[in-house]
Write a structure and sequence with these properties.
The chain is an alpha+beta fold. It has 3 helices and 4 strands; from the N terminus they run αββααββ.
Length: 87
């Protein structure tokens, strides 16, 4: 499983519920760095970040992966909530 995580995240389920994801250490470090810096954002900065993410997805014709589907419904971009996917 560890070697497979180098290629793509490995999901771990308890019945049909996602309980963990195995990712490579570098990706985890990047996530921690992002999370620590995100905590320092003001509300205005957070909204700017959300708009930038949505605009990038729209321009690049990407699917935006977010649990926060409601705030992006009106953007007209493909959305994916990873917490509702049944594998």
């Amino acid at each position: 499983m560890i070697n497979a995580a180098l290629q793509e995240p490995q999901r771990i389920y308890n019945r049909d519920r996602l309980v963990a994801v195995v990712i490579e250490a570098k990706v985890f470090e990047e996530l921690l760095f992002w999370q620590q810096n995100r905590a320092k954002l003001s509300l205005a900065d957070a909204f700017t970040e959300l708009r930038q993410s949505a605009a990038t997805a729209q321009i690049q014709q990407l699917t935006l992966v977010t649990r926060n589907i409601r705030d992006f419904d009106s953007w007209g971009i493909p959305l994916l909530n990873p917490f509702t996917i049944a594998f």
